[in-house]
Amino acid sequence: MITMSKNKTNILLYLLLKNASVFFISLFIICLLLALVPDTAIPGDVSYFERVKDYLTIAYLFSYDYSVAGTFLISELILHGSKLTFTLIFLSLLIVLTIALPAGILVASEKNTNFQKLFTVTVSLLSPIPILIWASLLMLLVFVFGNMVPLYIDFEDGDLRTRMFVLLIPVAAIVLGDGILLDFYNKIRDETRKVMNEPWLIAVKARGLPIYNHVLRALLLPIFITLSSKITYLISGIIIVEYIFAWQGLGFMIWRSLETPGAKDYPLILGSVKVLLFTVFLFSFIRDILTYKLNPQLMK
Amino acid sequence: MIIHLNFRFVLGCILLLILIGMNVVAFFFSSDIIKNGTPARPPSLYLFQKALYHQPIEEEAVEDLFSFSVPDEAEPHAEDLIFNRNPKRTATVGTEYRYVPTSQYLRNRASFWVEEGPRGMKYEDGAFIWTPDSTQTGIFDISLAAQMEDSETIRGIRFKLFSDEIPFYFGTDERGNSVLGLMIAGAKWSILPGLIAVLIAVFGGLFLGAYAGYNKNFLSNFIDGTTLVLESIPALLLFFLAAVIFSFNIYIVMVAVGLVLLPVNINIIRSTVKHFVDCQFVESSKEIGFTDNQILFRDIIWYNCKPIIISQIANCFAFAIMVEVTLSYLQFGIQVPEVSWGNILLQGKSDIHKGEFWLVFFPCLMIIMSLLSFYLTGSGLSRLLDPRKN
């Protein structure tokens, strides 16, 4: 459908509408499900549809209030949680790319070297282990050899070195777990191999020009496609990591609100979920725009 | 057909058989497998104990060297350690407990004795030995002392010794339950709930994906749109909601797992079917007069999609196990007093500061083993069944 349209504004509008509709439908599904959650604090005469209506109002009209749990504004809590969650997300992605990008390009450039075999086997063996297991084992290792349990409280109170260390443990669990590093590495390696054999790159080589800026540009789209496809997995992983290391991020707040028996903090849940879904929307939208921008064939 | 068995397939099958065996034991002997012993007993293997006791964590838990009296620095060997080997902390009734405190050189130049300990413990032939009888079970405070020939300083160590009737190779938890028994009992939540998720995800994905790939109409577009929406919601949120709505019923949560995995399977099968629809063998099958269903399910799915389906079954099983463990860990899955690997891991996490590492290490090992069993068997089997590779 993108290829058929030739008008840039129309394409942008189409992409925006497509991704926004996915975002709103996802939020709608969450509201429908949230209204099914049994809650003793809600009076018996409130019907399912009334609850759905209330949640839709909260979700779509931003009608947040104070948190049920405390005296904080929902927006303050979400802002604080977002800071922590996005710190973890972006730092993890940064480390994944810092490892996967040079390794993938290096492995694709050389054939059958020991480094290639060693790196591929190591990453393939370590990556299928889930984030939960990595986080637990890393916590255990830090306890046995470092004589500490790396929780968020140490991040708040510690000096710079402790803060960096406590931040790196959950990030390492996210990077290593659930095949995130493996997927990026495989994608970058395969795409680099593909690009290296393209006739236009051979022409660039023949002219004696530097090739790596061309390769990096060609890798931008595959990296972003992988990123947007992994972002939902990453968010699930972040929830687990935040719970294990007691980071008071969005995932932790959702977990705590849902886990509490009795009255649940629905505005907080909806606000947090909305931020996470919006992140997914943003990544998908940027991916679609990049697909269109970086691939001139789609313009034909 | 000559079956070329590869290493990963054989290893995967062995691990899978162990997992199935544990399931069978858990279902038929669930009440007998969890033995009871002394609470928080470390694993019997000294190697595992060494991992913890090389470094004390808290003042009250310090069980390394200390002096009964302050050493005089002028004395020879005043700063030397006599008890420079960590003692084993576990003993079993009827089996000799043996602790060699130091090297041969120091053993020859020092005298050793038991300051405080159970009846029958003595120093003999360079080692502290003790064979507990059936009445000597429980936790004993042990105090061992030593003095160098040319020194007046008495040195000693204090530690707790766990004595039980059976050797708990994986240790025990805070209530004295055998961790090995808990591991086996927890295995029952791996295969059966996973089966529900696999049935929905793989077989639902197979039929819907095949339909969407072979036909192009409103229904196939609707399937595309639904998968797009389902993929954009973080799966764990849906599992949380499913768990809370259905009162933590793991079987219903597994239905949700199946539904979440459905889009992935639909996409894979659809793209494969789309790839084969334009192939020559499909055209020739049409010419011969086969029906669409025959072409789709026999020629395309049965002959060409088997490896994909097998690997997807394995992946879905592994995913379902992981979801069960994660939800139990986050207190949304199997609820106490039922035993699940996730529950044990959670207990281990909360007790990690006490040094009970075996409650984290062994569940992690078991989960990795079960995931590997599915991944290896799945990938090995899909290679065997791939018509292009045979």
CATH class of chain A: Mainly Alpha
The CATH homology group name of chain A: MetI-like
Number of helices, where a helix is a run of at least 4 consecutive DSSP H or I residues of chain B: 13
Taking the alpha carbons of the first and last residues of chain A, their distance comes to 12 Å
- Tell me which CATH architecture of chain A applies here: Orthogonal Bundle
Report the β-strand fraction of chain B as a percent range.
5-15%
Q: Structural class of the helices, strands and pairings of chain B?
A: alpha+beta
Unreliable residue runs of chain A: 1-5
Helix and strand pattern of chain B: HHEEEHEEEEEHHHHHHHHHH
The general outline of chain B is elongated
The quaternary state of the protein chains shown equals heterodimer
Tally of individual helices of chain A: 12
Pair with the biggest interface: A-B, 43 and 43 residues
Sheet having the most strands of chain A: none
**Segments of chain B where pLDDT lies below 50 for 5+ residues?**
55-76
Major β-sheet of chain B, in short?
Answer: 5 strands, mixed
Give the DSSP E fraction of chain A (strand runs of 2 or more residues).
Answer: under 5%
What's the total count of β strands of chain B?
A: 8
Give the radius of gyration of chain A.
23 Å
Give the overall shape of chain A, derived from the CA principal axes.
flat
